[in-house]
Design brief:
alpha+beta, five-stranded mixed β-sheet, five-stranded antiparallel β-sheet, 5 helices, 10 strands, elongated
């Protein structure tokens, strides 16, 4: 009799453990879904957002049609070491002006967000000052590959005068004006 009661208790315990494990797995899946990176819907595009709304989505061709800027930049990266390359792209000011010339005039800062969720911030003063804030699409004359292909693009934020590289956002796909 005692053995039968113990077996029934063990079955209840196993069922309870399975239910708890299933609930944990579902909870983790829900959190992963809710915390997935947001951004441009299509690879090779950059969404421009203001006041929580997408106001434009620029394609690679549209960014490439803007005045071309080339900068030789040395990046000191904790994960990739020190490297120097010639980056080609369009100035962030030109990118934003192509949507609306008043965008950068009315913003205090721009958040550069990446496909993987990384975010960096720039002041509007930095962006307006020069073409040293670059939306790059080429490195040493070759188009940047996307994250899925093991690259750092198809767009990357390059700050020509930033000595550390910690704001040089890989996989750039959203510019949010604040």
């Amino acid at each position: 009799m005692r053995v039968i009661n113990q077996q029934q208790n063990n079955k209840k315990l196993y069922r309870m453990i399975i239910i708890i494990l299933l609930a944990l797995v579902l909870g983790i899946l829900l959190l992963a879904y809710l915390n997935r990176p947001q951004g441009a819907a299509n690879p090779g595009t950059i969404s421009i957002e203001s006041r929580g709304e997408v106001i434009a989505v620029l394609t690679m061709k549209e960014v490439q049609a803007l005045p071309k800027v080339e900068k030789e930049v040395t990046i000191n990266s904790a994960s990739e070491g020190k490297s120097t390359a010639v980056w080609t792209g369009a100035s962030m000011k030109d990118v934003l002006d192509s949507v609306d010339p008043q965008l950068i005039q009315n913003a205090e800062q721009v958040l550069a967000r990446a496909e993987d969720g990384f975010t960096s911030a720039l002041t509007s003063k930095e962006i307006k000052a020069s073409d040293d804030v670059l939306i790059a699409y080429e490195k040493n004359g070759e188009l940047l590959k996307g994250k899925a292909e093991g690259g750092v693009g198809p767009f990357r934020l390059i700050l020509a005068k930033d000595p550390f590289g910690n704001r040089m956002t890989k996989y750039l796909n959203v510019l949010e004006l604040k």
